[in-house]
Amino acid sequence: MSCLALVEEFGVELLGTVGQRVGKRTTVQAYTEIVFKTEKNISKDRPDGLIVVKTGAREWRAIVESKVGNAQLTAEQIEKYRVLAKDNGIDCVISISNQFATRPQQHPVEEVRRSRSKLPVFHWSWMFIRTAAELLINNQSVSDGKHLIILEELVRFLTHESAGVKGFDRMPPEWTDLNRQISAGGKVIPKSSEVAVVIEAWHQETKDLSLILTRETETPVHQKLPRKHLNDPAERFKDDLILLRESHQLSVSLDVPHAAAPLDIVADLNRRTVEVGMTIRAPEDRRSSKARLNWLLRQLKTEKSEDVFVRFSWPGRSENTVHALSDLRADPGLCEQDKSDLQVISFHVYLARRLGAKFTQQANFVAELEGMVPEFYREIGQNLTVWQKPAPKIREVVTEVVENDDEKGTD
To answer: Rounded to whole angstroms, how far apart are CA atoms 5 and 22?
Structure first.
C-alpha cells in the first residue's frame, strides 16, 4: 500500500487499471488498520486498507481487502465491504489475492460479478502487482532512485516464499474428472458444475500465462479477446463452453506487442495434447509454394525441431496439410505434394506435445503448459516476421534521342 502512494509510476500503473488518472496535481494516500464510523456493526470484517486519491477538489476512495497463500475471497465478505463502503461514502472495493481476473473489472468470484449492487468491486492478483512492479523496474521507468529501491524491495518481498504469493499452479480436481469422463466417451454437460469450475480455472490460468510472458519479454502481454468477452465474462464463458462441448478443447490467444502474430494456445482433451503456435501469411511475391516455404524456413532458426509442425492453408476448398518441421527442412518440396497447382496462403507454425497422463493431472498440466508457451515464443515466435508487399517503384521512362535534320545538313 505504501508503494502505491510513494512510487508515483507504480501508482499511475495500478490506479489506471481501475479508471483513476494520476497527474501532477494528484496526491495518493494509503492507510492501514482503518476504523469506520459503522465499525461496531461489522467489527469482524475490518478491511486491510484504504486508498485515497485527490485531484483538486475531487476525491476518490477505495476499501482494500487482501488475501495471501491459499486463502480465498468470498462473496459474503466482499458484499459486507460493499455495504461498509456505501455507508461511508467510499467509491469502490479493491480485492487482492492469488486468484486471477481477466481484467480488474471482472472479479474472479462469480457471485460478486452477478451481484445487483451498483458499487464497483475491482480485483488485482498478487502476480499482477508483482508483474507491474517488475516491468517498471526492468524498463527503467522509475525516475527517482529512492523510489526505485522501494519498488525493488516490494518485488523482493513478493517473490520470497514466505510472502505466500504464487501463480496459478494447479487445475481443480474437476479437471481430472472431466478428462476421465471424456476419455470414456462421455459428453460435456453444459449445466454441469464441474464444467463451470474447469472453465473458470482455465480463465485464471490464461491470465497467469499472459503475466508469465509479460515478465519473460519485459513487455505487456494481454489476452486477445473479442470486445464482447472483455465487456461480459458470461459471454466468454458461454463461447468457451460451446468449444469445450463440441470440440473438447480449451483455447486462448495472447497478444505480444510487435510480434508477427498472436500466440494461439489450444488444450485438446480428446488427444491430451497442448499446441502453441502462430499463423503468418505466406509471401505473395514468390510464385511456388516451395519458394514461399523457404522464406519461412529461413526464419525458423531453432535447433529444437522435435514436436514442431507447420500447417499449410490452401485456397478454395483444398484441405490443410501438416508436415513436421524436420521433414520440411530435409525436403521443402514435400509441401507441394498433391498441391503442385496451388499456392499456399498461410503457415501455422506450432509446437505440439502429447502429454498423456500428465494432461489429466492438476499440477502437471499447468507446469507443462507454462513451460511450453515461453519455449515456443523463445525458440520460434520471436523470430517470425510478417511479409510485407514491396513498395511500388517509379516506372523508368525510356526516352529516345531523335537527330534534327537541320543539324545533319550542317556537316
So the answer is: 11
